[in-house]
Each structure stands twice: as structure tokens, then as C-alpha cells.
Amino acid sequence: MAVIFYAPKVHYICEDTKAETCPCSQPIYNTSIFTNTITMEWNLICDKKWLANLTQTLFQVGTLLGSVLFGMASDRFGRKKPLLVAVVLQLVTSTLSAYAPNYWTFTLFRVLIGVSVGGVMVTSFVLLMEFIGNKYRHVISALYQVPFNLGHMLLPFCAYFVRDYSDFLLVTSLPSAILLCYFCLVPESARWLIAVKKTDEAIVILERVAKINNRQINVRSEVEAYERTLTGNNQKGNISDLFRTPNIRKNIICMSFNWMTCSYCFYGVSQYVGHLSGNVFINVAASASVSLLGSFVSIPLLKIAGRKTIVIVFNFICALCLITLIFVPSGVFSVVLACTGVVSSFIVFVVVYLYCSELFPTVVRNAAIGFSSMMARVGSMLAPFVIDGGDIAYWIPPLGFAILPVLACWVTFFLPETKDCALLTTIEEGEVFGKKPKDVETK
């Protein structure tokens, strides 16, 4: 989200023409809002304007790579070590980006920051879920998004007081140092330790957890009983298993399209809000605030409504707001509509995390979330270039962002409901799940 402030829309006049024309060899920038941005620093205007969006797209490429690489590393080396590597990489590269001497060095650092962010997100979410019981998993999966919302809300406050992009990036990188406390505070995943036969290490961690939670329980006997349930279960799945059978293939296509849509809309419209008329700091703060509201609203929604219903309804609301935005003049109401679109897409984002984990069997669950997350990055890569369509016609960005939620509404009708359903284990269960009884009998 920092791109809103280090690469905002800027106005300039050419020294020779005294107007905002292209080409322009000697631009004079308007520094009334931002004293310096990457656009001003490296003259990313006219035929170089696309380079500012390329930086954000490559950042998302880095996030995609980080999700895949650190996801594989966390399966092999445990959750804690890859998380710590990602944290250090995030702190180092985000700090260095503030001192990048040229555009391409800056972009390289943004890619590496993306890799680290992808690693932190994947490993921390998995680690958290593996310590949470089924009863509160839907609550914690929603609350997991809250720190992201708070960081989003802090960005406009930082940018308001720090108007130079280099200082801004330095200020926003420093909080990563807090995460170094993970070296001391974060334990390894007990589930992973049990899975790789490091039972004694898992028992030590769980005994400490039981003591902190004031639970009187024989941890060793519980762990040994759990291990016996795993004996003989050697079936493993991979990404190819998501496409081998027709029902699971249909589910992963529909689910990954939803992930791509909500990421495309959330990141794109959040950035688009910064281009609307009015105070950019207030606009972004409002957008971030409603996203925080969306995280909390999703908790009771998940309790009372089905996953499928929530996804369809809020995709429709998002699309409706964006289409309406085409016919509304720029002003307070346009910001309200855009913010409503942002919060709707974010609620979908929160829900699909849980929906995806419930829809696919254990043997391919990580593969399903990983593939869906990759598609989400594809959506966020495309979003910055849709915003640039506003230079051609004002209605292109809202219409461009509205199309995918409309399609997502239709696509979601092909998914089964998962609320209150037991988690699936095998490929066979996943293939039968959601089918009509007569379809199963015919098989």
C-alpha cells in the first residue's frame, strides 16, 4: 500500500512550454503535497510513466515467489526458521530501498521486499492456524487480518508528516525491527514437529503451552494418541491432484478465480482511492478504516451465514458500488462508494481464506491455498495498470474493477457450501463433496 504515497499521481509543467505536455525534458513538479516521490526523483512521466506501476507489479511478483519459496521451505525446515529469515530479509531490504541510488535498484529492493512479505504472510498464517483449535479457527483467521488493517491506517499518518518518499520508506521500514523479537518469542509448530517425528521437542513446547493456559493435562499421552491416528496414513497430494478429478478441478478453478478477483479489487481500488479528488491522506485513512471494520464484521457473518452466500453477496455489492462510481461526479460520495467497494472485497478476502481451507481435503489443502494465493497475486499485478486507464477515460478504472466481481458472483454458484461441514481428508471425499446424491450413484 505504500505505493500510494511513494508513487502518487503528480502534476508538473514543462519549463519550455509552461504546460503539462509530453515529451518534457525539464519538468517542474508541484511539490505542494509531496516534496519528493519516485516519479519526481527519476522523472517517471510521459513515456516512462508505466515504470511506476511496473515497480508495484514486480513487488507482487516478489510476493508470489515468496509465498511459493517460503511455503516449500516451511514444509521442509519447519515454520519458525523460514519465518525468521523472511523477517530479517524484510527489515534489511525495506531499509535499503530508502537509499536506492536509481530506479532499477529501487525496483530490485521492492521485489525482495515482496519476497519477504510473501514469506512472512504464509509462514505466520500457517503457524498460527496450527496452534488454534477448530472451535475458534474462523475467529482467528479473521482477526489475523487486523494488524494488516492497522498498518494500512498508519500509512497516511506517516505520509502526512513525512512528505519525502525516501524518509517515508525509512520510517515505514523501521517497525519491522519489532519482529526480531520472534527469535525469542515464537515457538516451532508442534504439529510440524510431530509430523517429522520430533515428538520430544513437540511435547516440550506443548507442555509450556499447557502451563501458560493453566491446563491440567498429560501432554505426552495426548501426543502419543494423536500420533497413532497418523500411523499408516501415507497418502500425499500435490498441485496436480487439484486438476485430476472433475469436481475438485471445478472447485479449484472457481475458488482461485475468487481469490484473484478480491485481490484485484482490494489492492486496485485502495490505490484508486488515492487518485480521487479530495485529501489523499483522508481518503486512504477512510479506505483503511472500513477495511478494519470489514475484518470485524466478517466474524459474525461467518457465524450466521454460509461461506458461499457471503462471497456472492459481497462480490455483488463491490461490483454495484464500482459501476455506480462511473455515474457519480468526483467528490465525497465517490470516495464513499470506492471505500464500500474496498471493504466488500476485503470481506470476501477474509472469507475465502477459510472457505478454501474447508473446501479441499487435507492431502491437498496446502496446495489449494498456495495455488489460490498465486492467482491472487496475478490479480494484484494487473490492478495498477487498470488505474492508468483513467488517463484515457475517467470511467475505465471503475468499470475495469467491476467486471471481475460480477463474474465471481456467477462462478461462486458452482461451489458447494462448507459451513458446519466436517473437514475432508482424502481425495475421494473431496471429489464426492457437494455433488447431488444421484450424481454420486451414477458414478
Automatic annotation (TrEMBL):
Residues 1-420 form the Major facilitator superfamily (MFS) profile domain. Pfam families: Sugar_tr. GO terms for cellular component: membrane. The keyword Transmembrane applies. The keyword Cell membrane does not apply. It is found in: Membrane. CDD domains: MFS_SLC22. The chain crosses the membrane at residues 50-71, 107-129, 141-162, 168-185, 252-274, 280-302, 309-328, 334-355, 367-387, 393-415. It is a multi-pass membrane protein. Coiled coil: none annotated. InterPro entries: MFS_dom, MFS_sugar_transport-like, MFS_trans_sf, Sugar_transporter_CS. Keywords: Membrane, Transmembrane, Transmembrane helix. GO terms for molecular function: transmembrane transporter activity. This is Organic cation transporter protein. It comes from Papilio machaon (Old World swallowtail butterfly).
